Amino acid sequence: MRVIIRDTYEMMSKWAANAVAEKIKKQEKTKPFVLGLPTGSTPQGVYRLWVEAKEKGLLSFSNVVTFNMDEYVGLSPDDENSYHVFMYRNLFDLVDIPKENVHILDGTAIDLEGECQAYESAITAAGGIALFLGGIGRDGHIAFNEPYTPFTSRTGVRTLTADTVAANARFFGNDEGRVPKRALSVGIGTVMDAGEVMILASGRNKAHAVWETVEGPISHKCPASVLQLHENVTLVCDGEAASELSKDAVRFFRETETA
Ligand code: PGA
């Protein structure tokens, strides 16, 4: 695992936005760049920087195919709190991605399991995910894969823990009763199959999960800890998120950092 530590949220967002943009630019025109994407507070800085780069003519999404990590069960794509609306508002409506290149799970599908299986098939048909960008929960979840979700899990229906419901209530007028209790989510196995994984972590409340992911044992208790077994993972943190890492770890990652 590679860990990049930048002092501030703005600096870590800039590092991650540039790193992914460079890979998009390098992609051959004949083959789309298949990108997995998260929602939440943390990626918003990266999305803003991509939109700015697109406006300046420095980045194009015309050859990018995206697969979002998750969606709430029961929220229609035009619901204010759906991840569909989040993604179109923060990124897709503001860049030049062809609409047919965007994939987001449908939380209102009649057959939820069938929807999830079709999503896995669509990822395979697209040639697999080249880079999965993600966030991390305070409990170490990735996408909606809460602690003790099997590492081999595939896209499916998940039940949110009370901690995640409480954390996400801020998007629902701080009313936990309005937060859907189930979601469709890519599996941990789906994320592990990506050619590369980049996880963003910002703020003091992520520091323990970051420590567990980087220095803790690989354990179902912290789903992100399985990333220790992936050969191409970058965890991009701000200073607060990195604040529980040991001095040895910080020194190692600083000394060995390459662009
Ligand atoms: P956040 O969510 O970026 O809103 O903190 C991350 C997550 O829960 O995966």
Characterise this structure:
With 259 residues, the protein is an alpha/beta fold. The chain is built from eight helices and ten strands. It has helices at 9-26, 44-55, 83-90, 112-125, 162-168, 188-192, 207-215, 247-255; strands at residues 2-6, 33-37, 64-68, 70-72, 102-103, 131-134, 156-159, 182-185, 196-201, 233-238. A seven-stranded parallel beta sheet has the order 1-10-9-6-2-3-5, with helices on both faces. Strands 4-8-7 form a three-stranded antiparallel beta sheet. Helix 7 links the parallel strand 9 (196-201) and strand 10 (233-238). Helix 1 (9-26) crosses helix 2 (44-55). The two termini are 14 Å apart. The model has no long low-confidence stretch (mean pLDDT 97). The structure holds 2-phosphoglycolic acid. 2-phosphoglycolic acid binds at residues 40-42, 135-137, 141.
Secondary structure: elements and pairs:
Elements lengths: L1 E5 L2 H18 L6 E5 L6 H12 L8 E5 L1 E3 L10 H8 L11 E2 L8 H14 L5 E4 L21 E4 L2 H7 L13 E4 L2 H5 L3 E6 L5 H9 L17 E6 L8 H9 L4
Parallel strand pairs: 1-10, 2-3, 2-6, 3-5, 6-9, 9-10
Antiparallel strand pairs: 4-8, 7-8
The structure holds 2-phosphoglycolic acid (PGA).
- Largest sheet, order of strands side by side? 1-10-9-6-2-3-5
State the order of secondary-structure elements, H for helix, E for strand: EHEHEEHEHEEHEHEHEH
Q: What summary fits the major beta sheet?
A: 7 strands, parallel
Count helical runs: 8
Q: pLDDT average, as an integer?
A: 97
User: Which percent bin holds the helix content?
Assistant: 25-40%
Please give the radius of gyration in angstroms.
Answer: 17 Å
Overall SS class: alpha/beta
Pick out the low-confidence regions: none
Ligands bound, unique? 2-phosphoglycolic acid
Count of beta strands: 10
